[in-house]
Design a protein that fits this description.
Elements (H helix, E strand, L loop, with lengths): L9 E4 L2 H6 L2 E6 L10 H15 L4 E6 L4 H13 L2 E7 L6 H8 L3 E5 L1 H4 L2 H9 L5 E3 L7 H12 L7 E6 L3 H12 L5 E6 L7 H6 L9 E2 L13 H14 L8 H13 L8 E6 L10 H8 L1
Parallel strand pairs: 2-10, 3-4, 3-6, 4-5, 7-8, 7-10, 8-9
Antiparallel strand pairs: 1-2
Helix pairs in contact: 2-7, 3-4, 7-8, 10-11, 10-12
């Protein structure tokens, strides 16, 4: 059950900036794990699905926006591992490429207004409380089981790094990475880049998983206006990064992550000879929701 060979190499990328600042930058290619159960989505879902199986639940209920990578990942994982799935989608009924993929993988979709969406547990009880097969999965795979899968990322490294960077939406990935570093007794400094505005609350979200708070950095100034908000500058950076590395990023998470990393290198945040690892958490379907904006900004 749930055996999936993980292909997630670490690749060094080059840039004259890195030479000038005397740093080395590597990318953990979690985006290559699976086309649709991508990056941290696979890691977060691993132990969630194992627990659902242990509890003999075969109907996965989860949540997301109309362009949610998590919905696609859950739909695909459900089909692959023998579950039914329902996605509760925030906002009015729409059709797009991401939701089409969800439906192709057999996921049923339920659209709810944004006010109702805020209380996910209430929605679950209202629509599926009498379904003995139903299993609640929080938006983005947030929660303790999600951190367990993300912690395993650290076990896959055969070299050490001075800094590790990841994008952050719920704090689950960052917390899992911190768990992995704690377990392996590493001195690597974790740097989380929140992709939403006013994200100071993420410190509490991350710290709740530990008996006492660990040291890490939250870089709060790279949200570009808020969750799924963008600017032409971000799109132009994504294009420059892709054309120089061959690595695509998305405007919701990883585009902001790499922008932050490059900006901090420019600003001499790192000491010379630092080795930096950036986690590419996948989620490239976020590009499809912004095709017109990207074309206007770049082309």
């Amino acid at each position: 059950m749930l055996h999936l060979e993980i292909y997630s190499p670490v690749q060094e990328i080059q840039d004259p900036l890195f030479d000038d600042k005397q740093v080395r930058v590597f990318v953990k290619r979690d985006d290559l794990i699976h086309p649709f159960i991508s990056g941290n989505k696979w890691r977060k879902l691993k132990y969630i699905l194992l627990k659902a199986k242990e509890e003999n639940k075969n109907h996965l209920i989860t949540f997301g926006g109309a362009f949610s990578n998590h919905l696609v990942a859950t739909a695909c994982a459900s089909a692959k591992f023998g579950f039914k799935s329902t996605g509760i989608v925030r906002g009015e009924s729409v059709q797009n490429e991401v939701l089409m993929l969800c439906r192709l993988f057999g996921m049923k979709l339920l659209f709810v207004d944004r006010t109702s969406y805020r209380d996910k547990q209430d929605l679950f009880e209202k629509h599926f409380g009498k379904d003995q097969d139903a299993y609640f999965i929080d938006a983005g795979g947030a929660g303790l089981d999600g951190t367990k899968g993300c912690a395993e990322l650290i076990d896959e490294h055969d070299q050490t790094f001075d800094h590790l960077f990841c994008a952050s939406g719920t704090g689950t990935t960052a917390a899992g990475i911190l768990k992995g570093i704690q377990k392996n007794k590493l001195k690597t400094v974790v740097n989380a880049v929140p992709v939403l505005k006013n994200a100071e609350f993420l410190k509490n979200e991350i710290d709740q998983y530990f008996e006492k708070p660990l040291e890490y950095h939250l870089h709060l100034n790279y949200h570009f206006g808020g969750y799924a908000k963008t600017t032409p500058e971000l799109f132009q950076f994504m294009q420059a990064f892709a054309s120089s590395t061959g690595i695509l990023t998305d405007p919701v998470y990883t585009g902001k992550l790499f922008y932050a990393l490059y900006d901090l290198i420019h600003k001499d945040f790192f000491t010379p000879k630092s080795k930096i690892l950036a986690i590419h958490t996948g989620g490239l379907s976020g590009i499809s929701g912004m095709t017109d904006k990207i074309n206007q900004a770049i082309f």
